[in-house]
Amino acid sequence: MALATPESDTKLYILGSRAGPSVGGAQYMTCYAVVVGDRVYVVDCGYGASEQLVRGGLKLQDIRNIFITHNHPDHNIELGTLVYFAWYAGLTRPLDIYGPPPLQTVLDGYLQAIKPDVDVWLDDIGHPPMGPVTAHELSTPQAVMDDGTVKVSCTLVKHTPIFKSLAYRIDTPGRSIAFSGDTSPVQSVVELAKGADVLVHEAIYLNPNQAPALAGRTGDARVDNQERGSAIAGDAQKLLQHVVSSHTPIEEAGRIAQEAGVKTLVIAHTVSLMPGVTDGMWIAAARKHFSGEVIFAHDLMVL
Length: 303
Ligand SMILES: [Zn+2]
Ligand SMILES: [Zn+2]
Hints:
By secondary structure, the protein is α/β, with parallel strands linked by helices. It contains 9 helices and 14 strands.
């Protein structure tokens, strides 16, 4: 068991800061790690999570828990892959995974998919068996877990239209870090993040003139033509409506951080609805209502 540690020993790793499930751009999908000594707590497992944990210098076998904010692929598509690679790297402790329903169904499917290969390695090179992997479905605001090093709590956020979506707060011996998950602006995040050191909040950068230009455009529905990566099939206008109705304008993320009284706002999982928005523009917009420190997240940042 790691010792209770001073503030400087709790680190926040931004492993993937990309929003949405298109691949091939400059960023990987959402994944964060809160690291206390040699204990690694993972929040979300979008595509690239396993790779980025290793590139960030972390050991997959040091993962203690995985917390999923919601069952959108840019937050959970690598859950099974990460469980597999962590076991392959030597994780045999029980692994408890938390998230909203249908987490159990999602995990069962992943475990079923990797079982034939796990069985092969057991025999072939003498890997120890995989420890128990348990899904804990969370449907209400609650204290999630307390392992003596970190305390984790969650609340419900608003990510229309379908998904039950969570925000998490992780309190370590020296630091408290809250994650909004994907959400439109909600008071529950203010309450969850009250007095935290860090709030990692998603954000969109609005372009009020974009809607007419996008009407009827199909084939590649992305709302920012400058964005790199694979295409997004569908209707651009519908995608725009989804983005606007289920995510948080950057100025509102700043207002939420201010109301919560956090020291630092980390802007991550960003979607710009107009081209040419710089880090500095994001930060300036966040500062409209927030007087604390603002950091625009990039993959492999350690804070
Ligand atoms: Zn997302
Ligand atoms: Zn989402």
